[in-house]
Amino acid sequence: MGFDYSNTLDGVQSFIDVMWPNGNEAFSATLLAYNKLVAELEEMVTRMVFESYGVEKKLDAHRKMVTYLCRGMKYRGPEKNETNMGFVAHTDKDFITVLHQNGVNGLEVKARDGQWFTVELLPASYIVMSGDAAMAWSNDRLHSPYHRVTINGNETRYSIAQFSFLEGIIETPEELVDEEHPLQFKPFDHLKYLDFYSREENRTLESAIRTYCGV
Ligand SMILES: O=C(O)CCC(=O)C(=O)O
Ligand SMILES: [Fe+2]
Known about the structure:
Blueprint: E1 2-4, H1 9-19, H2 25-52, H3 59-65, E2 66-75, E3 87-90, E4 96-101, E5 107-110, E6 116-118, E7 127-130, H4 132-137, E8 147-149, E9 157-166, E10 169-170, E11 188-189, H5 190-198, H6 208-213
Antiparallel strand pairs: 1-2, 2-9, 3-8, 4-7, 4-9, 5-6, 5-8, 10-11
Helix pairs in contact: 1-2
Bound molecules: 2-oxoglutaric acid and fe (ii) ion.
Fe (ii) ion binds near residues 90, 92 and 147.
């Protein structure tokens, strides 16, 4: 389950209203505090990326467009005759994802070289992963990896993710384009890309972002 504007009081409140019509102050305060911290982490990583590419002057305009979606996942262990009760392989459609899990591993990521590996996390660890929008923005420098969840044991896995989206047009900075690195993606409207991906016929594309706005 998930909700939009997840680092704002209004966003959290609209979720709480659905789940607890009589309110749940403690949960609401915890969720908002958590999502704000995770948004700060996302902001910090984004700043590091912009600085490392020498495009920090583009950061303010970028920040003004950022909005977050929070999603909570529950994966129970397989029962008899069931296999893999996880999440099918996909790339994230956002800019940057920050993921956290309870003590149960299960996330697998496909590296650039095609090898799948299991992400083994300490309880206090977070995963920061680039999505399709960051890949397009960076002219293919950041990799938006295929990933999936496979649950083998009996323990239930819980994870919580916060996804960043841009309300507006995403454009590759000209600093990241030159003769050696020709432009790979045309400017695109991030939320319209989500509409595109939500259509049945586009969900099985090898790379929805390349089909949508690849050069
Ligand atoms: O539960 C996880 O660790 C991954 C979830 C995920 O990939 C997603 O929600 O996009
Ligand atoms: Fe994902």
